[in-house]
Amino acid sequence: MKLLKLSFAILLLLTITSCVSSLPLNQQFYNTKKVGIILQVDSIGVAKAGSQGLLDMALTQGVRFKEPLKKVESNIELTQPLKNEISYFLNFKNKQFVFIDEKLDYKALKDFEKPSSDKKYSKKDFRNYKASHNVDEILYVKVRHGILVSYYGVIETGKQGYCNIESEVIDLEDNSLLQKETLQTMADIKGNWKDGDDYANLKEAIQAAINSSIASLKYKF
Prior knowledge:
single chain, about 220 residues, alpha/beta, Double Stranded RNA Binding Domain
């Protein structure tokens, strides 16, 4: 996986799993069924916001952030705090769960053929997990994090730490969605982003964005 992830959208709208933009949790989730949790945490990277044309995007690829991000990545706390938070609110709700640690290749999953129904469905077919992992539902959580650079054309207008968490709860009986939400958090960089030992100012802003997103996740459940 490449270190740098570049978003060329006008706004930071990092949608990956379905055409459904938001779906509040269906309370049938809190039943006696067991949910398998899949965490997909992308490598640290660059996201872009603002107004840019194609030439502007080609000229602002963010290569100069590659080494600074590489330096701060090892000091970022993300996966374990995320697991801790998910475990906390599921235990609080007496929900059976298990973390599925095997690496997921999301693109390799089969596309799901949506039946004629009023239900909302995941774009990908997760139903094989029911038999392979003895679970009834999947909570799929995808995380992107790093530096968000805002532009007007080729001119940088600001930099922030950012974290994007997307969650999807899938009923493995029919691949229908019980929830789909997105959390996007930005945190200002205090001082010059280059300052501090091993870019400490940059690291602290990214960590602050991560912490805020993780803390907010429970409110989606």
